[in-house]
Amino acid sequence: MCQGTCLLHSLSVFCCATQPTTTHSLASGRSPTPNELGDVLAGLNISLETRQALSRCADFTDGHQLDHSDRVFVNRSLNMNTIKYVGFDMDYTLAIYKSPIYDEFSYGLVMQRLVDIGYPRELLDKKYDASFPQRGLFFDREYGNLLKLDMYGNLLLCLHGFSDVDAATVRHCYPSKFATPSESRYFCLNTLFNLPEVYILALMVDFYDKNPDFKKLENGTGVESEELCLSYSSIFQDVRLAIDWVHIEGSLKARTVEDLESYVHKDPQLPQLLHNLRESGRKVFLITNSGWHYTKSMMEYLFDLPHGPTPGTAHRPWTTYFDFIIVDAKKPLFFETGTVLRQVDPSTGALKIGKFKGEVRDGETCYCAGGSSEVFCQLTGARGKEILFVGDHIFGDIVRSKKQQGWRTFLVVPELNQEIQDWQGAQGIFNHLKSLEFILSRMCRMPGEGEVPEMDIKRIRDTIKSTAMAMDAHHRSRLGSLFRSGSRQSYFAMQAMRYADLYASSFINLINYPDRYLFRATHQLMPHEQSLPTVESSDELSAPAVQRGISVPSSYYHDEDDEDSDDTPALGQSPSAPNLTSR
User: What is the pLDDT of residue 558?
Assistant: First the structure.
């Protein structure tokens, strides 16, 4: 029998052997069917009213009637009934800047600043290409490379300027094809404000590497001419300082405020969402790194609508939708040691002297600057898991608030709708890629068939690489998906899954869900659990735990929100009024 026939025979035997021999179960992560739910409900000690209410609830089996662009996606189950405080970042969360228009505007100001401090004027002729930059990349200050890493720090992509780095150079710079993200050598470009910076760094490296007046240093860490030596580290430092200058001391914010309509999206549902949150009994707060005057101008624009919370209601000042407004927060420092919390005079923006420690009165908006998450919790009496914080900055808003304070988190990913659209077109390639990887694994462990020629293994590996590249090419960005490269998830995806309880393309998607909604995460099985044949739900678990002699200790917390599951009424609800309204 020829070797190819042996391989196909082995694959067919293996596939048959691994097919589940029992009815498909919930191990795949799907939602339970109505019949499966009915069997479980039959053994639960709940009232007839609740059973009837559940049967009327359109999304009881998570039918996902909402369009993907309107949905909230769940990494960890979150019961909104336990959330008493909802906080928002401003830039790229409440205020979504129009891309690529605003990116091009920022790019132009930064390039002008670089020319002003001594870089060649010809750089001003370079146009911004919105198809190139992507957030979640790392810049290697030593070798001037842009890196896309997987969730473990392994290289997915390596670019020098706008060019792919060859394999020999990659092995020289990164012997294990691995980078440690926490090293100071690597700078993570993980915010939407970083998009112009990604392009500028690639442009500067490309410009000097191709400049005939410069040659590359022998150690690969920069370039030199007859008069000067320019390291990639110094280029990075100059670009960083130029960006900080444009954002802090330059004209970016002033010119943005002059033409907010051209640069910022306005959502007419914003007042209604914030109003609904407060009407449900929750406190709503704003935490932004922007100063008072910029925040005031931006929020007045976002709330400059002919109506109040809903069409037909009277217009209200933007400040009436918030219980707490904190500017100059200096996140992520806000979630660590923080700064002195000072009161802000909303009429002038002036800071009052001394440290604020006054009483926070119900019904009044509290205006502050600086402070810390710990001080905020002390003033409000809030506990970490009672707070849901919504932001776009994976590190400054999400990682730190989760790791340092245990807040529940909602990540805004404006790129998500495009990612979903691209993913729909790439799924066929992804399935083909998985089949190729399966074949490769079988080739490397075929029992009793003799060794597979190395050339065949190399051909399969090359085909896997080309297929992964074809999959990346389905995405709008030249660098592929924000969340993966081929079958491997990106470092950005890992951070989003690990630290963001919820995520969506816009915070406004919360308006599509009841205020007591339980966002339920799909159950995830470990590889050893997935290796077992799947079975249906066990009948022996249909009876209540007490009838089966199972006592549940008071210290047993199955869900993150279990500690809050007491007999207190839900926010804005009476104990006897279950809210099971469909979306």
Answer: 61
